Amino acid sequence: MTSAALKILGAVLIGFAYFISSLMIAIGSFTGKSRRRRLSRNVSFFARFALRLLVVRVRVRSRSRLPKAPAGRLIVSNHLSSLDILVLASLMPVVFITSVELRRSGLPGLFALAAGSLFVERQRAIALRGEITTISRAITQGFSVVLFPEGTSSDGSGVQPFKNALFDAAIRAGAEVLPLCIRYSKANGKKITIGDGHAVFYHGIPFLRHVQTILALQTLEAEVAVLERIPAGTVGSRKKMASLLHKAISEAYHR
Questions:
Q1: How far, in Å, are 1, 37, 82, 141 from residue 42 at the CA level?
Q2: Among 44-53, 55-64, 117-126, 210-219, which is the least confidently predicted range?
Q3: Number of domains into which the chain is organized
Q4: What is the C-alpha separation between 133 and 152, in angstroms, rounded?
Q5: Which terminus of the chain, N or C, has less C-beta within 10 A?
């Protein structure tokens, strides 16, 4: 059996175990808060297994800045690949903000549901206020909530402009913001150059082809830079917050 075939088999087994464990949590007699907390821990557990299967090595720069204990915060990151979810979840239990469109997208949507994700409808401004309230509530309940403010994954050439509306959730919750910067530095031992359009980036290609590319890789190196936190209450404007975070993450990406 080839390496790719073994990876596919392993991915199927891990995916099956993940769904079964998530289902057991979902049907258990837990409150909504307890259920989401258990689901986020479940994702973190299986993310580490999945990265080992895919031979993805994650290097963390300034690891000492990572939170030592669970607390409500907004985590903001650039978005390059479907692997970003596994990479970030492997570092700590988190809750992801994602789109309603993803929830309707079949298998990726099922994975997001099983992770206890928070879904937002980007195309309907009228729903925004309620969604900000929902995200803010999750933060005040003690969850580390991950936002990809670019709104989509990129081609790896740089950090796209940030959509700032959902930053209001951190301001309302009076929570700190932790910026992270993801980069994929090597594939099969060869350096990935920024802007070379490597297929590890999920941009402008079918999802199945993206997954096939990842499964075909022998090794992949990912880097996560943990940047300086923005303490609670120090930035009162979502536009200013978006500008500060975009600058910090973009500079780290091109460093």
A1: 30, 9, 18, 18
A2: 117-126
A3: 1
A4: 22
A5: N
pLDDT value of residue 1: 59
Distances (CA, A) of 27 to 21, 31, 107, 114, 229: 10, 11, 20, 12, 37
Q: Taking 90 as the threshold, does the pLDDT of residue 244 lie above it? A: yes
For the chain, the average pLDDT equals: 90
From 126, 216, 131, select the one nearest 168 (Cα to Cα). 131
pLDDT value of residue 195: 66
Burial pattern 186-221, b for ≥16 Cβ within 10 A else e, equals ebeeeebeeeeebbbbbbeeeeeebbebbbebeebb
How far, in Å, CA of 54 to CA of 49, rounded?
Answer: 9
Q: What whole-number distance in Å separates Cα of residue 221 and Cα of residue 192?
A: 10
pLDDT at position 101? 81
Q: Phi and psi (nearest 5°) for 144?
A: -90, 110
Q: Which residues contact 91 (CB under 8 A, 6 or more apart)?
A: 44, 58, 60, 66, 224
For residues 114 and 104, the answer to whether their CB atoms sit within 8 Å is: no
Measured distance CA(197)–CA(199) in Å, rounded: 6
pLDDT for 86 beyond 90: yes
Which residue from 106, 111, 107 is spatially nearest to 89, judged by alpha carbons? 111
Distances (CA, A) of 237 to 20, 170, 243: 42, 11, 10
More confidently predicted of 58 and 210: 58
Q: Which domain holds residue 23?
A: 3-253
**How confident is residue 25, by pLDDT bands cut at 50, 70 and 90?**
very high
Give the amino acid at 4.
A
What lies within 8 Å, CB to CB, of 199 at 6+ separation is 205, 209, 210, 213
